[in-house]
Every structure is written in C-alpha cells, then in structure tokens.
Design a protein that fits this description.
Layout lengths: L6 E6 L7 E5 L5 E4 L2 E4 H4 L7 E3 L4 E5 L3 H5 L11 H10 L7 E5 L5 H10 L4 E6 L2 H12 L7 E5 L12 E6 L8 H5 L2 E11 L2 H13 L3 E7 L6 E4 L4 E4 L9 E7 L6
Parallel strand pairs: 7-8, 7-10, 8-9, 10-11
Antiparallel strand pairs: 1-2, 1-6, 3-4, 5-6, 11-15, 12-15, 13-14
Helix pairs in contact: 3-4
Length: 263
C-alpha cells in the first residue's frame, strides 16, 4: 500500500508516445500534467498497478525502475545507457547486500542501477574527480530514494584510494581506466568482478593490455550491447524498425579478480 514519501511513477495509459511522471508522495500535494492534476492524497493508500482517472485521461501507478529514473536526471555528462548499465550489473552478479565501487560517477546513471540492485542491505562507493559532477549525481539520486545506499567521494582513483572493506565488484567509466587497474586489484575480493566501459578502440586495447599484465586479474570478455527498437501496429499488421535509433554506445570489458599468489 502506497504511503507518504514513496517514490511513484504515473504512466499515461495511451498506445502512442506515453508520458510519465516520477514523484515522491506528499500529503495535500498535487502534480500538474497535460491530463489534469494528480492529487497525492488520492494515490496514498492505493497499490502499484492501480489506475487513476484524471480530467483528460488515465494513468497507472507504478514502481519506477532505474531505467525510468534516468529520463528524469539532470545530465551534465555523457552517461552509460540503460542497456549497458543493466548488462554490466548482470554479468557482475550485483545483488542485495553486495558492496560495490564505481569511478567516473558522472551524472549518476550507473550509480542508480547499482544502488537499486544492492539495496536494501548493500552499499555503493562512488568516486569522481569532479566535485560538481558528484554534487549533481547526488541530487539526481536523492530524487529516487536511492542516495542512502551510496557514498560519494571526490577522489582520483588512478593515484590512490581506499575503502573500509573488500568489494564484490568495481565499475570504471572514464577515459583512462587502464591507469587504475592496479589500484582496483587491491580493493576487490577474490572472484570479484571488474567492468570497464570505454567508447574508443584505442582505449580498449590499452585497458585489456593492462589487465593482462596484472596477475591479479583474468580477462574474460570484451563486447558491445546493441538494441533494435520496433514500431508495432497490430491493427494494420505493420511492424517496422525505428530508423532513428542508437546503434553504438561503447565497449564493455569484463575481468575477474583471481588469487595470484596461489598460481
């Protein structure tokens, strides 16, 4: 049952270009939309999946996912797209209770995914050299209710850094991840995952070369994520690809931490 303070997504029930709104429930508050006002008091006490009738249409109340949150973030940097974030979390096995790190926070896109998956008992340690980026990411995460699972730190991990305990996984999303490989090895558990995201081929070669030089890591795979969206109209028996679509974002490099002293 929804209560005050819950984060809610209201999705317009229409087959074409559905809009949605994400907001925190607050007693006696209203949200103006092109369909009419959403009265928070009418949402409190309802369940996810309930339909709310407005002046000019209907919305369904949903529990927003990290993918939904990204569309409401204030973006000051290029972000990892939701498909890359989801796959990166999947191959690293990110789940509740895990302790994970990331560097290159940017606007907090991957941060939101990580915080969502490790909650409610895990934690994310997020590093960036730009304090303005971190402040914006923290503000973005505060709108999702996920900020409490993240520690934001201004730090260049290529020089040195430390965490209180060994981590289950680490994610690198900045232009020179190969300069941080040796430092990451010191904070990962045996069997822990290292995921690097880079957009350029030269960066891929340098990163994989540095991983292979480090006896604490074993390089598993290097790959990209592609997605093809379709427009579907069953009434006219039409299904066609969306011609204006994202065809390339970057390359994911997956490695694992091994106990080199036993080799």
């Amino acid at each position: 049952m929804l209560k005050e303070g819950d984060i809610v997504q209201a999705l317009e029930l229409t087959q074409r270009h559905s809009k949605f709104w994400i907001f925190s429930l607050s007693k006696d508050s209203e949200l103006s939309t092109h369909l009419g006002k959403i009265n928070h008091n009418e949402c409190i006490g309802r369940l996810f999946g309930d339909i709310l009738s407005l002046t000019k249409g209907q919305v369904v109340l949903l529990n927003p996912s990290p993918r939904d949150f990204l569309r409401h973030f204030r973006l000051k940097t290029q972000i990892l797209y939701e498909d890359d974030c989801a796959v990166a979390c999947s191959i690293a096995g990110v789940g509740p209770g895990m302790k994970v790190g990331e560097a290159g926070t940017g606007s907090g896109a991957l941060t939101a995914f990580l915080a969502h998956y490790v909650s409610p008992t895990g934690h994310v340690f997020s590093f960036d050299i730009n304090p303005h980026h971190l402040a914006n990411a923290k503000e973005n995460l505060s709108r999702t209710g996920l900020a409490k699972y993240v520690t934001f730190t201004v730090q260049d991990i290529r020089s040195s850094f430390d965490v209180e305990e060994l981590l289950d996984a680490f994610f690198l999303d900045f232009s020179t991840p190969y300069e941080a490989i040796d430092n990451i090895a010191a904070v990962l558990k045996g069997g822990g995952h290292l995921i690097c995201f880079v957009p350029n081929w030269g960066q891929v070669e340098k990163t994989v070369a540095q991983i292979r030089k480090n006896q604490d890591f074993f390089h598993l795979t290097t790959f990209e994520i592609t997605r093809r969206n379709f427009n579907v109209n069953p009434d006219r028996h039409v299904m066609r690809p969306v011609f204006r679509d994202l065809v390339y974002s970057g390359i994911l490099i997956h490695s694992i931490r091994i106990n080199s002293e036993l080799r």
